[in-house]
Amino acid sequence: MTQRPPLAAARPDSPAAPEEGGKERGGGRGPGRRRADVSLRLPSLGPLGSARLGSARLGSAGAMGDATRLPRQLFLQGVAVAFLFAFASLYTQIPGLYGREGILPARRMLRPLGKGPWELLWESPTLLWLGPRLGLDTEQAMELLCLLGTLGSLGALLLKPLRHGLLYLLLWGLYLSLYQVGQVFLYFQWDSLLLETGFLAVLVAPLGLSGPGGRAGGRTGGKAPGGWPHEPLPFWLVRWLLFRLMFASGVVKLSSRCPTWWGLTALTYHYETQCLPTPAAWLAHQLPVWLHKLSVVATFVIEIALPPLFFAPTRRLRLAAFYAQVLLQVLIIITGNYSFFNLLTLVLTTSLLDEQHLAPWLGRTRRKAPPRSWLRSLLALLTLLVEVAVFGLLGYGTVSCFGLELDKEQRLVHSKTAFTFHEFSQWLRAVILPTVGLGVVALAWELLTALYRCGQVRGCLGKLWAMAQLSIFGAATVAMFIISLVPYTYLEPGANGRLWPGAHQMFRAVEHLQLANSYGLFRRMTGLGGRPEVVLEGSYDREHWTEIEFMFKPGNLSAAPPRGGPPPAPSGLADVVCRTWASQPQPVVHQLRLPPAAGPEGGRWWRRQWVEEFYPTVSLGDPVLDSLLNQFGLKDKTPPRLRASAAPLPQALRLVREQLSALGPLAVLWTLVCTAAAVRLLHVLLSRNPRPSRPPRRPEGSTGEKNGAAPRRDGVERPRAQPPQAPTGSRHARRKQ
Fold first, then answer.
1. What is the predicted pLDDT for the residue at 482?
2. How far apart are CA 428 and CA 424, in angstroms?
3. Whole-model pTM?
4. Considering Cα of 693, then 698, then 702, then 707, what sign does the dihedral take?
5. CA–CA gap between residue 529 and residue 677 (Å, rounded)
6. Contact indicator for 545, 210 with CB cutoff of 8 Å
7. Is 26 within 8 Å of 219 (Cβ atoms)?
């Protein structure tokens, strides 16, 4: 029998291309016999998977995992940057917040109370329990954890081999240890988001697993060219976390019944009442009211209407949602400082990207699209029509829900909320469970895609090893998804009550590990009557009083708000004082307002209005003040035990603290940022080596070749490979005759 011609030739530069000489790896059935090549080209593997199936050969692993390889690396680097900022900024504030004479000493959070070590570790999972074994007090143990976290995150950012699952597990464990004793200063949403994202990075980061018969990544191990089949699966959890974060942030603004969000006037107060405004916030505050209201409408669209597009079947819809989220986060970063919250949100948006979109950013050329058949052209046309319909539906819904009207005479856009709270509650009750179903379908598709990739791994042992990894990581992914449903459905109590009871049990078992959390920033707009603040003044003679200023807090009215930079942790003392006195019957505060649009008045960036005296004049040791501090738990009853240890580790920590304290917190943060940026820039410059140019192609016959012989380097001629000829007597030969 004659050999059938191949259905489609594989690309020479693809992993599925045959080896030189046209022979299959592993031999054939006989001389001159070849295994048939099959070209599978699908536009996409479905609406919810970011993987693509390219040209592949039967029996070999396809390139389906390549679509998320670069986004995964970008995500891991971004998580390392967030951990770097978190550990470094917290290290600079440990003495003032958690030290022996700090506001909330951390040592009072670590009291064994007669419990065993394992019981203590489970109830309060922190490595600080090991501090006494190392000869460290609680403050020094926290400094050690911060230094280790800073070095580990810096290494993961700069060195690709260090982006390992075990290192991210260490970073997550270090920050969880600090979170357990951080009290109110680490109870912000970005701290919970960092812990949840850090644990997802543990699942996303490679573990260097080798195949059953060879080293990690080797061909003998049975690994697919695009990575192990399970690797893109945990990365889907990052997209699901981004959806929960953004959708909840938009829903809570309306479910809280805040009049400023419902009246679309929240941004007229936001820029002057936020925690850490920037100079750009002053400029944004001067914008006209109609533009502020239109910005609130855009915020609702980006946070509520666009997140379902994260699971869209087409790339253009996902990329449109990606750029909308990036625009919102960048504008927030420009006008305010919210620590690493917005940076971490930008890191989560990498789950919406694929390698095809990132290739031009990295200076790589895109693959040329194969010639389209009539079926592919029809499919592309239908896809375009669906995308146009989706964008048209979004535009129509925005105009109808917010009553947008264009006023050509005044050159502005009128907007108002065109629905009631009852209608919104009914809509929310109707969409929560369908969004859960959307997540179930998306996860099921990812599992089926990973299972298909397992079938493409070479060899029986390779398939078994890939299936074993998929079983472990698939179970972890499904468990994380089920756990996350409990805090997500807090948005609608009825949906939360209809969840599977096992989901609630799983969530309660790991709730203290911060694996899944509920989110919703800016639920209500505060400071509507001005920016309330407490002003502390001190005096030596009770006649001349001097204001005590705090870092990143508006004190000097002539000083501009701090510009953008490495995100600091929230200002400690001012936050505690405000929390302490918020429950007083008549809080006595000052109010700050931004100056009018004409510019800073007399060089002043703020206008301060005195309300009344906050607290009568007191001195140290005042019994009334002591009783009040004891009432709110701000006075530590346990006297600190000062023990100067002569061990090498405590002395090294004290030396590092002395050296870094001389630089200042901002100098330390900027030094780390500039060092990381310089190393990355140097790496990019060194990696851009010019490719050797190919020699010009000579016309046939100009090289002195005779009778189709190709010259070799050793001077011995070899016959040139000829294209396969149809055997004599074949059907093709008869047709030519």
1. 97
2. 6
3. 0.79
4. positive
5. 42
6. no
7. no
